[in-house]
Design brief:
mainly beta, 0% helix, single chain, 14-stranded antiparallel beta barrel, 304 residues, 60% strand, two-stranded antiparallel sheet, Porin
Length: 304
C-alpha cells in the first residue's frame, strides 16, 4: 500500500494481510552520539473482498528525526478495484492520507531568527496508482505507476500567518518479477524509481528464495538478496537482505551500507559509519469456514 494503493487487497487466495516495518537509520555518524538520527515505524492491514475484486486497507507510518526534534505521522486509507482477466489482474487504487507534522520549537538546534515555529501542522491529500499483474505461469510480473500528493496541500512550519509551501507531487514506477527457476528455487528481481521535485531515487536488485521442502503451495523458505540504491544519479547504498518465509509468515531484515555519504564532499557531521537497519514482518491468512456454510444452497437445502 505504501508503494501503490492498487496493491490493496492483492493477497492471492487469502482474505487479509498484516504488516509491520521498522527502520533505524544513521547511528554511527559523528554528532549522532550512538543514536539513530532517523527512525521509521509503520504498520497496516488490508482485506480482499468480492472474490478478489475489491480491496480496502489502512496504513500508518511515523518518521522521527533527530531524536524527536521533528516527526511526521501519516495515516492512509486505501481502496482498490481489480479487473480479473483470466490469470492476469488490472488494478486501480486510491488512497486518502492525513499528514501530521510535529516539532519541538524549543530545541536549540533550530535557527529561527525572528520566526516562531508552529509545534504541529496537518493537511489532507490523495494518492493514486495502477498495477498490472501479468501471469506467464513460470513468471509473474507486476508493472505499475503511482503518484502521491496529487492535491499538493500546503505545509506550514511558522506562526507568521503565511500559507506555507505546497508539498510537491511524487511519481513512482516499478517492475517486480517472480520467476520459478525450479520447484524449490525462485528469483525475484525488481526495479523501482521515484521522482519528486528535482530529486530522483532508483532501487534495483534481486532476492533469491529457496524452499526447504518440495511440494505444496506454502512451506518454509530461505530468502537472500542484494539491492542497490542511487540518489540523484550517484550510487548511494548497497543493501544485502536476508529472511525466512514460514508458511504464511514472512520476516525480512536488511543492512543499508551507505557508500556515498555526502554529494557535496567532506562534511564533519557526515563522518563515520551509517549503521542503518530494517526489519519487516508480513502475515497473510483467511478464516477457516467448514462446510456446509460454504455451500450456496445450504439455507434452502440443509443437509443432515
Amino acid at each position: 500500500m505504501f508503494l501503490n494503493p492498487a496493491f490493496t487487497g492483492q493477497i492471492g487466495e487469502d482474505l487479509f494481510r498484516l504488516n509491520a516495518h521498522a527502520r533505524n537509520q544513521w547511528s554511527g555518524l559523528s554528532g549522532a552520539d550512538g543514536k539513530f538520527l532517523y527512525e521509521t515505524r509503520s504498520g497496516g492491514v488490508d482485506l480482499s473482498l468480492m472474490k478478489r475484486r475489491f480491496g480496502v486497507g489502512l496504513y500508518i507510518m511515523q518518521d522521527v528525526a533527530g531524536g524527536g526534534i521533528f516527526s511526521t505521522t501519516q495515516g492512509n486509507l486505501s481502496m482498490s478495484y481489480s479487473f480479473i482477466m483470466g490469470d492476469n489482474v488490472l488494478s486501480f487504487g486510491g488512497q486518502g492520507l492525513y499528514n501530521l507534522t510535529q516539532l519541538n520549537p524549543n530545541d536549540p538546534r533550530w535557527v529561527t531568527g525572528s520566526q516562531f515555529l508552529e509545534p504541529s501542522n496537518s493537511y489532507f491529500d490523495f494518492n493514486a496508482g495502477v498495477n498490472f499483474k501479468w501471469d506467464l505461469y513460470y513468471l509473474t510480473a507486476d508493472i505499475g505507476l503511482a503518484s502521491n500528493n496529487l492535491i499538493q496541500a500546503p505545509q506550514r512550519f511558522s506562526q507568521s500567518g503565511t500559507q506555507g509551501l505546497q508539498v510537491p507531487r511524487s511519481y513512482k514506477a516499478y517492475t517486480l518479477l517472480d520467476f520459478d527457476m525450479t520447484e524449490r528455487m525462485k528469483l525475484l528481481p525488481g526495479f523501482y524509481g521515484s521522482f519528486q521535485a528535482v530529486s530522483t531515487n532508483f532501487v534495483m536488485g534481486t532476492n533469491f528464495s529457496y524452499k526447504l521442502l518440495k511440494g505444496g503451495t506454502y512451506g518454509n523458505s530461505i530468502i537472500m538478496g542484494v539491492w542497490f540504491r542511487t540518489n540523484d544519479g550517484n550510487l548511494e547504498s548497497v543493501i544485502p537482505k536476508f529472511g525466512m518465509k514460514m508458511n504464511k509468515l514472512q520476516i525480512m531484515g536488511s543492512y543499508d551500507a551507505n557508500v556515498s555519504l555526502s554529494k557535496a564532499g567532506s562534511s564533519k557531521y557526515l563522518n563515520g559509519i551509517t549503521n542503518t537497519f530494517e526489519i519487516s514482518i508480513i502475515f497473510t491468512g483467511k478464516p477457516k469456514v467448514t462446510p456446509p456454510l460454504l455451500e450456496d444452497d445450504f439455507i434452502l437445502n440443509p443437509r443432515y
